[in-house]
Amino acid sequence: RTPTPLSSGINAEYGGQPLVTMFTVALCVLSLVASCHGYRLMEEEDGVVDYTGYKTIRVDLSGSAGAAAVVREWVDEERVDVLNEGIGDEADLLVGPNEWDSVTGELESLDASYEILSEDVVGDVETERAQLLSAVPGVFDFNNYYAVKYMHSHLDALVSRHPGKAETFSLGQTYQGRDMKAIRISNNVASSGSKPIIWVDGGIHAREWVSSATVMYIVNSLLGEVEPSLQSKFQGLMNKYQFVILPMSNPDGYEFSRTSNRFWRKTRRPSGCKYGYETSDGRCIYGKCYGVDPNRNWDIDFGRQGVSKNPCSDVYPGKSAFTEKNTQAMSSWLAKHASQIDLYLSFHSYSQLFLKPVGYDRNPPVDAAMHNAAGSAVVNAIYGTHGKVYKNIRSVELYPTSGSSQDWMYSKGVKNAYTIELRDTGRHGFQLPASQIIPTGEENVRGFLALLETL
């Protein structure tokens, strides 16, 4: 249960006993309880997370009236992590060894069926780590997942090879000082400022590595580095549009997911104390929290649905909209150019979905017919590439959410504002093998072309 924050610090007395003494005892007891439940009680920044004994499961919530509420309670208490984007008819959960028996036992008592997606999460992490270590320093390709600095170096290299078609620029810097580097691509790029804009971004959630890799694949496709058979189509589009592409929207979180916590989702700025519980001198009693969900931090229906008030939660939206430097940088540029933007497209993973606006209102928007047609074109083109099935649905049908970039762009008059959730459907989840980067890129660059043809 969420404790009620103290308002008088820790120097008062209760029943004649100094409250600080009682707190010392309480915190010792709390640390034992927290250890049993896998909570993290720490004042300093999290270190490397060990996932030994962790498993992932998919829970069917459609047949149990109380199961969804119980899962939400577990998430608020940080007993489990939700891996897919919300708690709808099913939820993919990351469950630690200390919680396994109680979680599965309670699911069984609620008649909520579940299947195991991964028996050995730490084995999956170690396999992926070995793949990362096989990369040649300084090289960028689509056979591995790379650090932000190598993505950015590759963008600069593309500009050097295609000076008349590409230029890079920075939207700003993150909390930890990393560049928000974007690339602009068009024929005669220097004189293309008045053309309509096609915006594409990836990597807004740190653990969704394939999203940035797919966006980088689209960048390379536009410039003819890959997909030579599509160049005639792209050349015509580059005469008409300027493509502004941000492959890595959350570089701080992404790097943390590479070095410390593979399942990290948020930004990295300190965001408060767990449950707001702190001492009079500002120290966190239950634990210090880091980061905000950057796709709940936009100023549209802010803080109402699909979020948590706990700053340690994966879906904590922040104290207010646009608290994060990366969402500030993105929204500032997008708002300035909104009247020119013909398409906003954000890549995420996983679940294989084409998501249409809006995520916070079950009533269909006035442009629903256009959105349906766009989604049909995309999922058909994707299926025609490698036979992968992506569903064409509205965001709210999957999970009600507030504060997403897609919905904020739609509210700014960009009628074509969409999100694509990439491979897979849960076996690998965020840890999609690097061997699937190229086929994921191939199917989605064709889906992207099909989408452009609907504009």
Describe this structure in words.
With 455 residues, the protein is of the alpha/beta class. 35% of the residues lie in helices and 18% in strands. It contains 13 helices and 16 strands. The protein has helices at residues 19-37, 67-76, 100-109, 121-133, 148-161, 209-222, 231-240, 251-259, 325-336, 368-386, 395-398, 405-411, 437-453; strands at residues 13-14, 17-18, 55-60, 80-82, 90-95, 114-118, 166-173, 179-185, 197-202, 242-246, 270-273, 288-290, 341-349, 353-356, 391-394, 417-422. The strands form four sheets. Strands 7-8-10-9-13-16-14-15 form an eight-stranded mixed β-sheet, with helices on both faces. A four-stranded antiparallel β-sheet has the order 4-5-3-6, covered by helices on one side. Strands 1-2 form a two-stranded antiparallel sheet. Strand 14 (353-356), helix 10 (368-386) and strand 15 form a beta-alpha-beta unit. Helix 6 crosses helix 13 and helix 10 runs antiparallel to helix 13. The protein is globular. It starts with 12 loop residues before the first strand and ends with a helix. Mean pLDDT is 90; it is low at 1-44.
Mean pLDDT score = 90
The secondary-structure class comes to alpha/beta
Low-confidence stretches: 1-44
Order of helices and strands: EEHEHEEHEHHEEEHHEHEEHEEHEHHEH
Tell me how many strands there are. Answer: 16
